[in-house]
User: Which sequence fits this backbone?
C-alpha cells in the first residue's frame, strides 16, 4: 500500500490511539454548545410535593439518623436510572470541565501530546517545541511530582490544574535526565491532521474531535491541500467519538450545496431539518473511513456526506449513537447531562443502536491499514 507522507500506518495508528485516550470521557457524545436550564411548574407539581412530604416525614420521624446528602444523591441517581438512557447522567464538576476543555477552541498548556508519559507529538511554535522537547521523550516528573507510571489523562490534568503559569519537567531522553522550565500559554486545540498522500493527488484529513473551531481548521486544511493539487479526499473519522453538534453541521456545510440536508432533530414537541445555508461547496470524490468507534457527531458528518454529497464509506459499521445531549449546571458546580433529542440522517433514518453500514466493509489486519488502502484504491480508479 501507499503510505501517507508524514504519517504512515504506524503514525496513523498512534494518532488514533492518542485521540481515543484524550477523548475517552466524551465517548458517544453529541453536545449542544449552549447550556440550557428551563425549570418551570415545579411549585405546582403534585408528584414533587408528594416527594417532599415523604422526605420531610423521614427526616422528622425516622427512628435513626439520616444522611440527608446521601439520600438525596440516591434520589437523583434513581431519577436518572429510571429513564433507562445511558447518555443521561450526572456529571461531577471535573468530568464536565474535562469535556469542555477537550472541545474548546483553545487550551492553556505547553503543547505536547502524550501516551502515558511518552511524548508522541510536539505542537509547532509551542513552549515545548521552543524549549527543545522531542517526540520520544519520557516525562518523569512534573513540578517535582513523579509521573513516570501515570496515564496521560492524569499527567495532563496535573499540568492544567497547576495555578502557576510555569511547568517544570524532568525528561528522560536516551537514558539521560534533562530538566525544562516551560511557561504555559494559550494554544489552538488542534482537532485534525492532514496531508496529501505521497505520490498521489489524494488528500488525507484525520478528524480527531468535533471541537468549537473544527470547521475553521478543516477549511484551512482544504484550502492548503487544494492549492497543492488535491483532486480527491479521504476523511478519517475512525475512533472519533463525537463532540459539538454545531461542529458537525458547520463542517458538513463546507462540502454540501446550499439547501442540501445535513440532519434532522426530533424532540418531544418539534421536528426540524437542518440544511446547508452556505456558499461553500466541493465537487471532488470523497471517501469517509469509519469504524465501530465512529460515534455521534462523526456519524452525522459521515451520513450527511454519504446521503447528500455522494461520498463513499469504507470500514466497518459505526457505533450507532443517534441522540443529542444538553447540560444543565447545578448550584453545587456539578451538572446533569440529559438527552434532549434524537437525530436523523438526511434520508430520515435514525441510526441509534444500529450504526451506519459502509459501502465497502473492510476489516483491518494487525499490521496493515486495509481500510485506508481501499480508500486510496477507490480514488485512483
Assistant:
Amino acid at each position: 500500500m501507499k503510505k501517507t507522507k508524514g504519517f504512515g500506518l504506524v503514525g496513523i495508528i498512534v494518532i488514533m490511539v492518542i485521540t481515543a485516550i484524550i477523548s475517552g470521557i466524551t465517548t458517544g457524545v453529541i453536545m449542544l454548545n449552549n447550556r440550557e436550564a428551563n425549570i418551570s411548574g415545579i411549585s405546582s407539581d403534585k408528584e414533587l410535593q408528594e416527594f417532599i412530604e415523604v422526605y420531610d416525614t423521614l427526616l422528622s420521624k425516622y427512628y435513626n439518623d439520616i444522611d440527608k446528602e446521601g439520600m438525596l444523591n440516591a434520589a437523583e441517581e434513581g431519577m436518572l436510572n429510571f429513564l433507562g438512557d445511558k447518555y443521561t447522567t450526572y456529571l461531577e464538576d471535573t468530568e464536565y470541565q474535562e469535556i469542555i476543555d477537550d472541545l474548546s477552541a483553545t487550551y492553556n498548556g505547553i503543547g505536547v501530546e502524550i501516551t502515558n508519559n511518552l511524548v508522541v507529538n510536539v505542537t509547532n511554535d509551542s513552549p515545548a517545541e521552543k524549549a527543545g522537547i522531542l517526540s520520544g521523550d519520557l516525562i518523569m516528573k512534573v513540578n517535582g511530582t513523579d509521573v513516570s507510571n501515570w496515564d496521560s489523562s492524569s499527567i495532563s490534568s496535573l499540568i492544567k490544574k497547576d495555578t502557576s503559569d510555569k511547568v517544570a519537567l524532568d525528561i528522560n531522553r536516551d537514558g539521560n535526565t534533562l530538566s525544562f522550565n516551560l511557561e504555559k500559554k494559550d494554544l489552538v486545540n488542534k482537532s485534525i491532521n492532514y496531508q496529501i498522500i505521497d505520490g498521489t493527488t489524494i488528500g488525507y484529513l484525520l478528524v480527531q474531535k468535533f471541537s468549537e473551531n473544527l470547521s475553521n481548521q478543516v477549511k484551512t486544511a482544504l484550502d492548503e491541500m487544494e492549492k497543492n493539487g488535491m483532486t480527491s479526499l479521504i476523511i478519517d473519522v475512525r475512533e472519533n467519538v463525537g463532540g459539538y453538534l454545531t461542529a458537525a453541521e458547520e463542517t458538513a456545510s463546507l462540502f454540501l450545496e446550499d439547501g442540501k440536508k445535513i440532519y434532522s432533530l426530533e424532540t418531544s414537541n418539534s421536528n426540524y431539518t437542518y440544511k446547508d445555508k452556505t456558499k461553500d461547496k466541493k465537487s471532488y470524490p470523497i471517501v469517509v473511513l469509519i469504524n465501530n468507534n465512529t460515534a455521534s457527531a462523526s456519524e452525522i458528518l459521515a451520513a450527511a456526506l454519504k446521503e447528500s454529497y455522494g461520498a463513499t464509506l469504507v470500514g466497518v459499521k459505526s457505533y450507532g449513537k443517534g441522540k443529542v445531549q444538553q447540560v444543565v449546571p447545578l448550584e453545587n458546580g456539578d451538572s446533569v447531562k440529559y438527552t434532549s433529542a434524537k437525530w436523523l440522517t438526511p434520508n430520515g433514518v435514525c441510526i441509534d443502536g444500529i450504526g451506519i453500514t459502509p459501502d465497502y466493509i473492510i476489516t483491518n489486519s494487525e499490521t496493515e491499514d486495509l481500510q485506508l488502502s481501499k480508500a486510496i484504491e477507490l480514488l485512483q480508479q
